[in-house]
Amino acid sequence: MALMGVQLVVSLLAATIMQRMAPHCSFARWLLCNGSLLRFKHPSEGELCALAGKQITKPNKKDRRQNGHRENKPLTVPKDIDLRLESTPVNPLDALVLRFFIEYQWLIDFAIYATGIFLFTEGYYSVVDASKEVNIGVIWCVLTVFFCLRSLHTLMSHYFSSDEGGERSVCLAFGFLSLLVAMLVLVVREDYLEFGLEPGFNSLFDNLEVFAKQQGYAWSVPITKLTVKLGLACVCAFVGALLAFPGLRLAQTHLDALQLNADRPFIKILLHISFLSPLLVLVLWVKPIARDFLANAPMGKTTVTLIPSSAFNTVRLWTVVALCVLRLLVVRFHMQAYLNLSQKWVEQMKREAGRIAAIDIQRKVTRIFCYLTVVTLQYLIPILLILFSTLALKSLGDFSWGFVEETPGVTPALVLPTSPPPVSGLEDDEESEDMEEEVQATVARLAEAFHGLCAILTPLFFRGFFAFFTWWVAACQVISSLFGIYFHQYLMHN
C-alpha cells in the first residue's frame, strides 16, 4: 500500500501553510474581528460620577501622611443612573484579552484546513484510482473530532477547577442523564434506529475472532459485546457532560438573537431552522419516520416513492452537511446577541434600587467580552463534531455523494497477508545490505499490520460507529438546548 503520494504532499503543505500563516492570516481571527461584531466598553469612574452627579475627590498628601493606613472606600453609584454603554467594533487588539483565544484560533483554523484537505482528497479520488493509498482527508477529519473533544474537555476542566460547584453539578447531572439515555438507545433495535451498530459489531467481532484464533488466543464474543457496549455508553456519558454547557449557551443566545432580530422575519426563520437542526439530524436516523416514510409516502390510497431507499444514505449525508453550513452562517447573530448581554444587564440594573460599586459595573461589562471566544467555541464545536463525523462516515463507510447504490465492504473471513521471508545472502555480505534487508522487513511488517487493521475495521463497522456518534452528538445538544430554553424562559423568571 502506497503511504507516500500526492495526498501526503498536499497534507504536509497545508500543515506548513497553517503554521506560517496563522500570525498573519487567520479565519478564526477574521470571524471575530472583521468589524461586524460590536462590543461594549466599560464606563470609566469619571463617567459614572458625572452620571451620578458627584465628583471624584482625591486625598491630598497631608492626609496620606497622617492616615498612612487609611482604607480607600470603593466608589459607589446609584443603580438607576442613566448609563448607556458605548459600542465599538471588535478589532484584533481586543482579541488579545479574550480567554482561550489561542485554543480557539488554532482549532478553527485547523478545521478550515481539514475541510480543504478533505475536499482535495474527494476530488483526487474521483479523478485517480487511489484505492491503494491512505485517505489523508479522513485522518484530518478524525483528528478534528478528537481536537474538538479535547477543547470541550479543557473548558469543562475550567468549570471543575472553579470554587463554585454549580457548573460542576450541571456537568455531572448531564453526564448521568446521558449515561441513562445511551443505555436505552443501545438496546433499541435496528428496525427503529438504523445506525448499523449491530452489523458493524458483528463484523468486527467475527474478524477479531478469526485474528485471535490465528494468533493462538482464546476469545469470548458474548462477554466482549457486553463490555464494548458498556464502554460505548460510558463514552456517551462523557460526551453528554461535555455538551451540557454548549447546549445551555445555545438556548440563551438563540432567545437573545430572536429578540435582537425581531423586525427581520427571514433571519428569524433561519435562526429557528438552525436551532431545530439537531432535531432534524435525529429524525434522519429514525427508520419509520425517515427512510420508510420517504420510500413509501402515503398519497391517498396509493403510496409514492419520494426518495429511493438506495439513494437515502446520500440524501442524509447532504442534509446533515447543509444543516451544519446553515448553523455556521448564523453564527454572527448568536455572537452579537451574546455581546449585547452587557447592555441587557445594564438595563436590568437600572430597574433595581440601591447602590452598586463602580468596579462591579466595569468588571461585569469586561467579563462578558472576555468570554467571547469561550461562547464561540461552545457554539461552533458541536457543529464541527457533527460535520466532520459525517465526512468521516462518508469516506470510511464507503458512501458516495452521488445517487448510486453503495455496497459496504465486508470481510467475512480474515486472512492476514504474510510477508515473504528475507532472502539469505552470503556470509560475506556487506553491512549496508543487511541494513537494507532490515528496513525492507520493517516496511513489510508495517504493511502487514496495516492490512490486518483494515481487514478488522471494515466499512460496515465504520458506518455503524460514526452514524451513532453523529446521532449522539445531535441528541446531546437537543437535550441540553431544550432544557436551556425551559430554564431561561420559565425558571429564570420565577
From TrEMBL:
<protein>
    <recommendedName>
        <fullName>Transmembrane protein 161A</fullName>
    </recommendedName>
</protein>
<feature type="transmembrane region" description="Helical">
    <location>
        <begin position="368"/>
        <end position="393"/>
    </location>
</feature>
<feature type="transmembrane region" description="Helical">
    <location>
        <begin position="137"/>
        <end position="157"/>
    </location>
</feature>
<keyword id="KW-0732">Signal</keyword>
<keyword id="KW-0472">Membrane</keyword>
<dbReference type="GO" id="GO:0016020">
    <property type="term" value="C:membrane"/>
</dbReference>
<feature type="transmembrane region" description="Helical">
    <location>
        <begin position="266"/>
        <end position="286"/>
    </location>
</feature>
<keyword id="KW-0812">Transmembrane</keyword>
<feature type="transmembrane region" description="Helical">
    <location>
        <begin position="169"/>
        <end position="188"/>
    </location>
</feature>
<feature type="signal peptide">
    <location>
        <begin position="1"/>
        <end position="18"/>
    </location>
</feature>
<feature type="transmembrane region" description="Helical">
    <location>
        <begin position="465"/>
        <end position="487"/>
    </location>
</feature>
<comment type="similarity">
    <text>Belongs to the TMEM161 family.</text>
</comment>
<feature type="transmembrane region" description="Helical">
    <location>
        <begin position="226"/>
        <end position="245"/>
    </location>
</feature>
<keyword id="KW-0325">Glycoprotein</keyword>
<keyword id="KW-1133">Transmembrane helix</keyword>
<dbReference type="InterPro" id="IPR019395">
    <property type="entry name" value="Transmembrane_161A/B"/>
</dbReference>
<dbReference type="Pfam" id="PF10268">
    <property type="entry name" value="Tmemb_161AB"/>
</dbReference>
